[in-house]
Each structure stands twice: as structure tokens, then as C-alpha cells.
Amino acid sequence: MNDNINPSGVSTLPLRALRLRPGMALQTKRIVEGASKKESQFLAAIEGKGVMVGPVGPDGAKTGLEEGEICIVRGFTGQHEFSFLTKVLQTFEKPFPYALLQYPKHADARLVRQSMRIKTSMPALLSMRNGSGPGEAPAQDVTLIDISTAGAMIRSASSLAAVGMAVTLSFAVDFEGAPVELVLSGTVCHNNTTSGQDGYFTGLAFNALTQHDKLVLHYMTESRPG
Fold it and tell me: How far apart are CA 46 and CA 69, in angstroms?
């Protein structure tokens, strides 16, 4: 695929290349003075025909779009930040509120992450690898809150590991109908708290993954809704 890339790192992609998924968060904004951004979600698209978007949040009963006007759509796929200009073809209230947008010739996209990252909420165990001996410290219960083929984010009740520490993350995943236990080696790349949220958040970068590990992680990120 021959993408046009400018110095800002933004490339021109066909919309299908972004692999948008139903329920993916978007922002829509009419191109008129004083218009505000509206929280929306991607519903469906038919290439060359149209894109369906629906409202979410406090204004969930209205799309906030007007038929015949031009609007800009922005979103994040888990890898790319993207935007495209489009025309509002029609708006509907039944069977649910949504707007039908003109299918764009292209979208402007900027690669943010090399690997697709998905949100999740799965129980996991984190062990700190003992640098002075062959064993590991006792495993701690954590929650896996997002994951990609390159790393993961976990939440814990207390701070567990310092930046740069070697760890092992283990959790079970359903792989094509069969349970699989993954035991992944990684390194802590950041560790912090977030205002308004309980717990400590630890970012991990995976290393020394086997082909089996990569296959299962790829399956997780490609088959689950983002």
C-alpha cells in the first residue's frame, strides 16, 4: 500500500485499513462556528456507501449532527489516531439514534503504537524475579487492564515493582475455546497512580516471548473488541 506520509508523521489511509470496530469511541464535530465536540461511537461502515455513528454519554438520545452539513470525525484505534472530513447524509431516531455519514475517500492517521492495545479486566499474577538467585518472590494478585503484543498495563492495590525491575506476569486466556496459561517475562517501564482512580498502575514491556506467546497475544488483540 502506497501511503502518503508528510513530515508530521500523518499518513493518508483508506478507512478500511484502520479496522474500526463496532462500539469504538469517536468524537464528531460540525464544521460551523460555535459547534462543540460530541462523544460518539462507530457502529458500522459499508465501503463506498456510508459510515454509521451513534451518540453516547449525556447526549445519548441525539447525534448532535445536522443533515447536509460537513463534520469532522476523530478517533483512536489502539494504534492510530485518525480523523476524516465527511458530509452528514441522514440522521435517524428509530430504531435508535444514529447518523449516516458519507464514506470518506481517505482518513488522516498517525501511528501512535506499533502494537494494537486492547482494554480488558482479567485477574493475573505478578512475580518479581529475584536478581540474586534462581527463585522468584511470591506472586501478587493484580488486574490486567490492557494488553498488546509488546506489553501490558496492570492495576494493583499497592506499588509492587520499581521501574527497571524484571517481572513475570501470568494469566489464563481462552484461545479458540481452550484455556491457555501464559507466563510472560517483562520489565517494568513505569509505575504510578492516577488521580480519581484507585490503585497503582504498572506498565510492563514484554521480552523473550516465545512464538507460542506471540501467537496467543496476537489472537487476543485481534479477536477482542477494543
Answer: 20
Q: Cα-Cα-Cα-Cα dihedral of 116, 120, 123, 127, to 10°?
A: 30
DSSP 216: H
Task: Give the whole-angstrom CA distance, residue 188 versus residue 42.
Answer: 34
Question: What kind and span of H or E run contains 23?
Answer: none
Write down the pTM of the prediction: 0.53
Per-range mean pLDDT, top range of 69-78, 82-91, 151-160: 82-91
| List of long-range contacts for 180-183, beta carbons under 8 Å, 24+ apart | 180/216, 182/213, 182/216, 182/217
The 10s digit of each residue's pLDDT in 178-212 is 888 999 999 888 777 654 567 788 888 888 889 88
Q: What is the pLDDT of residues 123-146, one digit of tens each?
A: 999 998 765 444 556 789 999 988
Cα angle 163-168-169, degrees, rounded to a multiple of 5: 100
Could you give the CA distance from residue 123 to residue 142 in angstroms, rounded to a whole number?
6
Q: Report the b/e string of 152-183 with b at 16+ CB within 10 A.
A: bbbbbeeebbeeebbbbbebebeeeeeebebe
Q: State the DSSP string of 81-115.
A: EEEEEEEEEEEE-SSS-EEEEEPPS-EEEEE--SS
Residue type, 177: G
